[in-house]
Write a structure and sequence with these properties.
alpha+beta, globular
Length: 214
């Protein structure tokens, strides 16, 4: 097994209502906690200009030993049994979202033309100390034709922040592609019907999102 093993998951509400978007947010929280407990690196990308509080979908990247094995435990339909937190008199209490594997794609540099990218550097705050804010280590990369951008200030070196920003930019494009496919399916009234018919791989109950044994 390799520490560089990587798995990508699309977590989506399909064409479900706001309650399903809330379920997406709760699944992302649970996924992150379990991934970190398993020693995996967890990153999540949301659609451009969308708040992460109740996202319609998100792209999760898991990296580390047995990342694919971990991801398989989530693939399929996830059911949330809970009274609507937004519509007190609503009778429905079963909400469904989907978690799907996303195929590995080429490196960002192969998908994006260098001439279409604007790369900016800026001073990045980090741990306190004499070297704080003394170098332009933060990186923002913008794809000019689409306006999609990504930022990294997580790493100490500008070189590494540039790599991370490119990974995030590529993830945004990948998420956009997957969202388009999901919307196409929803337009044909397929996506959410498939979610509701599916046998859920995980079932959670109540506002505290407690897992129920199957």
């Amino acid at each position: 097994m390799s520490q560089n093993e990587r798995s990508r998951l699309l977590v989506t509400s399909g064409d479900g209502p706001r309650e399903c978007r809330r379920a997406v947010a709760l699944v992302l929280q649970r996924l992150e906690r379990e991934a970190l407990e398993s020693g995996l690196r967890f990153t999540v990308t949301f659609p451009e200009n969308e708040c992460g509080k109740e996202p319609a979908s998100a792209l999760v990247i898991l990296m580390g030993n047995c990342a694919e094995q971990f991801a398989r435990r989530w693939m399929g339909t996830v059911q949330w049994i809970c009274a609507s937190p937004f519509r007190p008199n609503h009778k429905r209490q079963n909400w469904f979202i989907g978690v799907y594997a996303v195929a590995t794609v080429e490196a960002p540099e192969e998908n994006l033309q260098r001439s279409d990218l604007r790369i900016e550097t800026f001073r990045s705050g980090g741990p306190g100390g004499q070297h704080q804010n003394t170098t332009d280590s933060g990186v923002r990369i913008t794809h000019l034709p689409s306006g999609i951008s990504a930022v990294s200030t997580d790493e100490r070196s500008q070189h590494r922040n540039r790599q991370v920003a490119m990974e995030r930019l590529n993830a945004r494009f990948l998420l956009k592609k997957q969202e388009t496919q999901a919307r196409d399916k929803a337009a044909r009234n397929m996506m959410h019907k498939q979610l509701e018919r599916g046998n859920p791989v995980r079932v959670f109950k109540g506002p505290r999102f407690t897992e129920r044994a199957k």
